[in-house]
Amino acid sequence: MPLSDFARQTQFVDGVGQAELVATGKVSASELLEAAIERNTAFNPAINAINITWLDHARDLAKNFKLNPNKKFGGVPFVLKDLGAPYAGQHMSNGNIALKNAKYIAPTNSNLVQKFIDSGLITFGRTNSPELGSVPVTEPLAWGPTRNPFDVSRTSGGSSGGSAAAVAAGIVPMAHASDGGGSIRIPAACCGLVGLKTSQGRISLAPFGDEANVSVHFAVTRTVRDTAALLDAVHGPGVGDRVIAPTPTRPYINEVGADPGKLRIGFIDHHPTGATIDTDCVQAVRDTCKLLESLGHHVENSWPQALDNTDFAGKFTAMWSTNMSVGLNSLGQMLGRAVTKDDVELMNWTMAEYAKGKTATDYAQAVYLSVMFRRMLQQWWADGFDLLVTPTTAQLPLPIGTIRNMPEDPMAALRIAGNWIPLTPPFNTSGQPAINVPLQWTRDGIPVGVQIVAAYGREDLLIRVASQLEIAQPWAHHTPTL
Fold first, then answer.
1. Would residue 197 show up in a list of annotated catalytic residues for this protein?
2. Among residues 159, 178, 215, 430, which one is catalytic?
3. Residue 482 lies in a domain
4. Can 159 be counted among the known catalytic residues?
5. What's the pLDDT at 316?
6. Which of 81, 100, 115, 197 is catalytic?
7. Of 180-189, 313-322, 369-378, where does mean pLDDT reach its minimum?
8. Residue 86: its pLDDT value, please?
9. Do the beta carbons of residue 252 and residue 229 sit within 8 Å?
10. Considering only Cβ atoms within 10 Å of each terminal Cβ, which end of the chain, N or C, has fewer?
11. Quick one: pLDDT band at residue 325, thresholds 50, 70, 90?
């Protein structure tokens, strides 16, 4: 269906820009919301990005919206990932068919969701996620696959694939996302977006999450300034947090356009275990390094040797499986009954059963080895490097159906995933901030992700450099045709 002029004009205006339109009285919150709903109606059938909506509630919020200088995104339409982000009074399924059918209603807001609300965002629904966020594509049996707006035969990535597709399509300017092994950076890479995985403990996971675990929550955006401004709105500790990142010295928005100075940057353009990396992905890293050199930085062929540790994947899988087992326990609490094999997808049930075969000592040993890995990985930055450049994924966005439940080999999906994303999970274990920048594209218009990693707590440096790259090689003109 054709869009109205206003819906088309605001389609690719970023969140800061849309907030300015409301703040200056040029448009109302209701007008922005209706434009987003119109775009969702037009584009979502092709990409299946948004699976749950609460339009009447959102319209009431927009109608009653009042300007407040403390609300940095006052009146801007927004969506939440359908995973681990409870919004009081609204349905969530975590990508699970049993929870979907039970029509589970969240009883309260998480700390982060409340901060989204307090920033003035008008949330009108949820975006598709793989069941319990277990794989880096978004194709849950409960809701079906989310498709890439740049090529609907390909994945939008995961587990924040619905959010990334919604932002890439221009339905909303930014969207909530989370990252336990690359789930912000991977879909950002697939969909040509900025995707910042924050430092462990930068954003509170209260009252339900654990900052000491591998997962963080934040967002995907189209612009660096949206990433910075939203981070200003939501960062900070909550009651009882086990890990708290260092307080920034100034607002993150002040880092946009700031001179990063001359930095020492290393890069890795090969697969740590020797598997193949697509030529496009290798070239994207090399081209990014050339751009960084042209901007005055020192770039050398160096990377943390810890990444060459072939045992890492096994350590990560052991903890990932244990997290899945705990996740099924939480699912049972939400359902109000014991979870059965029929309630969850086969690969997730298999992972949870694998974890049950391990002892407490096995898990403690895996945690200890991960701590040692974390120290070895971070040492490279302590030895004098500022940034590391890597491919975000080892291949271009995969065809829909590549990673799926395989009854003959339930764990095959994880092996395929591991070969596709070897360089995102290490930085969940190390707790470091890492950002996908949409600098590179194939001749056919497919995004090629490049990841930049900083030392723990240095989101400020990542924002400075990402902003410098965005100015030097803009990406705003890369938009899909749907």
1. no
2. 159
3. no
4. yes
5. 64
6. 81
7. 313-322
8. 98
9. yes
10. N
11. very high
State the alpha helices, DSSP H only, in 64-129: 97-102, 111-118
Question: Residue with structure tokens 């965002």?
Answer: 121
Share of the chain above pLDDT 90, in %: 92
Residues 130 and 82 sit within 8 Å (Cβ to Cβ): no
Pair of tokens at residue 330: 């939480």
Closest by CA to 476, choosing from 257, 267, 170, is 170
The encoded tokens of residue 234 equal 């939501």
SS3 state of residue 379: helix
- The arithmetic mean of pLDDT across residues 38-67, rounded, is 98
Q: How far apart are CA 482 and CA 478, in angstroms?
A: 13
* Three-class SS state of 376: helix
Counting beta carbons within 10 angstroms of the beta carbon of residue 338, is it exposed (0 to 12), middle (13 to 18) or buried (19 or more)?
exposed
**Rounded distance between C-alpha atoms, residue 426 and residue 365, angstroms:** 17
- Residue ranges of alpha helices (H) inside 383-477 are 412-420, 426-430, 459-472
Task: Tell me how crowded residue 445 is: count the other CB atoms within 10 A of its CB.
Answer: 13
- 451 and 193 Cβ atoms separated by less than 8 Å: no
Residue 481 lies in a domain: no
**What was the pLDDT predicted at 275?**
84
**Amino acid in the structure at residue 431:** G
- At 184, list the tokens: 């912000």
Residue of 156, 183, 204, 430 with catalytic role: 183
Q: Are 417 and 403 in contact (CB under 8 A)?
A: yes
3-state secondary structure at position 436 = strand
How far is CA 468 from each of CA 2, 95, 180, 237, 258, rounded to the nearest angstrom?
A: 36, 37, 27, 29, 8
Whole-number average pLDDT of the chain: 96
Strand partners, 145: none
Is 56 a member of any domain? yes
Give the domain range for residue 112.
Answer: 5-472
Binned at pLDDT 50, 70 and 90, residue 188 comes out as very high
Asked if the structure places residue 288 within a domain, the reply is yes
Phi and psi angles of residue 87, each rounded to the nearest 5 degrees, phi first? -120, 115
Q: What is the pLDDT of residue 128?
A: 98
Instruction: Give the CATH number, domain containing residue 337.
Output: 3.90.1300.10
User: CB under 8 Å to 52, separation ≥6 — which residues?
Assistant: 82, 90, 91, 92, 93, 125, 126
- The Cα–Cα gap between 145 and 297 comes to 41
State the total domains in the chain: 1
- Confirm whether 81 is a catalytic residue: yes
